[in-house]
TrEMBL record:
Membrane spanning stretches: 12-33
InterPro entries reported for this sequence: DUF3431 (IPR021838)
Name of the protein described by the UniProt record: Uncharacterized protein
Keywords: Membrane, Transmembrane, Transmembrane helix
Pfam families, alphabetized: DUF3431 (PF11913)
PANTHER family the record matches: EXPRESSED PROTEIN (PTHR37490), GLYCOSYLTRANSFERASE 2-LIKE DOMAIN-CONTAINING PROTEIN (PTHR37490:SF1)
Lineage top rank: taxon: Eukaryota
């Protein structure tokens, strides 16, 4: 550091003070010019990994740390305001599945409703972890958060779903869902959609009769490093699927970080100029990009061939590792 002596060798008092002031001003200008370096680019996640994510050794959430030892099967539910009886029914169903029970299931709920206490959810649903998240990015933001935070410690298989699942009602769990999890699921499954075939559709690079989503073709190119071929892709809606950690890790962490950055972006971000129609809105709690990511999982996990719907109707509804 400067001492007065080294800054002012051979100078009289007044010139010395001026020189110190000039040095201080220069330091202030440098700090001002470099301020961008200290700004936070990734909302919500920045706190967790400003420096460490490059190394892919990131499990900064302490309460999820405890799941490491038990890594057969995780269930990740994104909760907002779904009926708790229904959620409890879904959890009971999963816990009772023969095929999954022996894999040591842990259930993790991400609570995106700031009006409901996570302690209350934990008490009502008796799950392994309840973790509060800000209500941004729809269910896709929740899944990306889980993947990014646990990239190195993911369970062999993770079932992702919104807390209100297709196929589950208070009265019953529909037979196709029972069949898929009980009969079709094996530890060799890489990706399996968990919605009925009526929630699946075939797109042509982001287009079908109802949709024209240019970003899907762009993301295809980003993920596969090839242009989107016109041979049709199957999309499964609702963000309800199970996937192996191998499939997740076939894509580098930075892809998930980038998708997360866009899906959780604040309202000033250009991504919100993407809209379904000129009169609809894109806002952080319901970004249009969330609907893009909802349609992306089959591509991201390399299970988008156009015969997927047929395979699901024939009870072989999965891609295998
Ligand atoms: C990444 O890991 C290497 C070796 O373990 C270490 O030297 C480096 O500082 C780490 N980088 C960050 C950004 O944490
Ligand atoms: C389940 O847990 C038991 C006991 O902790 C352990 O021995 C077993 O390897 C685990 N199974 C899987 C598939 O993780
Ligand atoms: C939480 O409660 C406030 C005040 O009652 C209400 O305005 C808001 O919409 C509620 N939010 C959710 C997510 O239910
Ligand atoms: C995607 O799956 C196909 C089989 O359906 C396989 O041939 C191809 O190598 C996989 N691509 C990647 C990048 O893993």
């Amino acid at each position: 550091m400067w001492s007065e002596a080294s800054a002012c060798d051979n100078l009289n008092g007044r010139r010395c003070i001026i020189r110190i002031i000039v040095i201080l001003i220069i330091i202030c200008i440098l700090i001002y010019l470099e301020r961008g370096r200290f700004e936070r680019k990734l909302p919500y996640l920045s706190d967790l990994y400003s420096n460490t994510w490059i190394n892919k050794t990131i499990s900064p959430i302490r309460n999820i740390e405890s799941l490491k030892r038990n890594n057969g099967f995780h269930v990740v539910l994104s909760y907002y305001a779904e009926d708790l009886n229904l959620v409890a029914q879904f959890i009971r169903f999963i816990r009772n599945l023969q095929s999954i029970r022996r894999l040591n299931v842990s259930i993790i709920i991400y609570n995106k409703n700031s009006n409901i206490s996570s302690i209350y959810l934990q008490k009502m649903l008796k799950v392994d972890v309840v973790h509060q998240l800000p209500n941004v990015g729809r269910e896709g933001g929740t899944y990306l958060y889980h993947i990014i935070n646990n990239y190195d410690t993911l369970a062999d298989h993770t079932l992702f779903s919104q807390a209100g699942a297709d196929g589950v009602s208070i009265k019953e769990v529909e037979s196709w869902l029972v069949n898929r999890l009980e009969k079709q699921f094996t530890t060799a499954v890489g990706y399996m959609p968990l919605v009925s075939a009526r929630w699946m559709e075939v797109y042509d690079c982001g287009r079908n009769i109802y949709n024209n989503m240019v970003r899907l073709a762009e993301l295809w190119a980003l993920i596969t490093q090839t242009l989107c071929p016109p041979d049709k892709q199957t999309v499964a809606y609702r963000g309800q699927f199970l996937v192996s950690n191998k499939r997740i890790r076939r894509q580098p962490l930075r892809i998930y970080m980038y998708l997360n950055e866009l899906i959780t972006a604040d309202s000033t971000h250009w991504i919100h100029t993407d809209r379904r129609s000129p009169v609809s809105k894109s806002i952080p709690s319901n970004p249009f990009f969330g609907h893009i990511v909802e349609r992306l999982w089959t591509v991201l996990f390399n299970c988008s061939k156009s015969d997927l719907i047929n395979k699901c109707n024939r009870d072989v509804c999965a891609c295998f590792d």
